[in-house]
Amino acid sequence: MKLTGVELRRIAMPLVAPFRTSFGTETQRDVLLVRAVTDDAEGWGECVAMAGPLYSSEYVDGAVDVLRRFLVPRLVAGGPFGAHEVAGRLAPVKGHRMAKAALEMAVLDAELRSEGRSFGRELGAVHDRVPCGVSVGIMDSVPELLDAVGGYLDEGYLRIKLKIEPGWDVEPVRAVRERFGDEVLLQVDANTAYTLADAQQLARLDAFDLLLIEQPLDEEDVLGHADLAKLIRTPVCLDESITSARDAAAALRLGACQIVNIKPGRVGGYLEARRIHDVCVAQGVPVWCGGMLETGLGRAANVALAALPGFTLPGDTSASGRYYAGDITEPFVLDDGHLRLPDGPGLGVAPLEDRLAEVTTATEWLPV
Questions:
Q1: Given this model, what pLDDT does residue 26 score?
Q2: Domain topology for 3-116+352-367
């Protein structure tokens, strides 16, 4: 297909409540949307980079710059292309996986819409709905945490993930276990907040029969994770450390993890995410779909990805209302702990024009 232009759109999405992790607190998402316009259709992509380089080295202003100056010009320089060629054309630009993922997502959405095929069908989905977990941020007190967890369980979420950091780990996990029992699927996420010197403290979490501990150490400390996995019984899951199928294969070979969290934006797009899934399935390693507080656009694609056969654990594919009072698409609503895959062409959802206009803070058209 041939691009006629790309729109970069910034939107401001207030969260229903502050979301605190070990690297900061978010009250509003500054979201970059990418709209790819072709001769036959248009498609939407969502960049999951945060406002600052805290979760990763990428950030929204940087994504805008690299898309404008490098990625879009390089993509169109070679003439017409298909979505599966996007990653190869962008490969000479080092890094910037979140920006690349947004552009590839937009192109793939446009291509699939023009051909009448869905994201789920393209990726290889085998389910028409997926089980949903919820990520619970760090709270000011244990009673506040227990109220939040109780509310999410009442809503029907099938798995609870607690954000942890030094000083907020064993006690909140113990409190949740004591209040809600061993039958609750429970896991924790450290977002790189610990070092191997904290192994003894992390081993105290073994008593609570957790599904996994996610990214306890620095993202570059893959060997440290391999050492930690030998010192604790709780399965180690990698997130920030996995940026490609090659990374996943290396981490598994080293014994650095027993489970992998796949975030398409972090790994450069949904096609690379599928490759990571395939690597893990080949080795019998379970995967699950992580979340980055996506709008309905990114959520639709994540739900499609989470319907692949290797995604055997509930992901962070929460309902729209978990984060936003008003989404930019028709909201995703929890149904018996699950979200249903959109079945229309492409993402199967599109922005609501009035709502999109309401939250838009800037637009830029890149003619090609």
A1: 87
A2: Enolase-like; domain 1 (3.30.390)
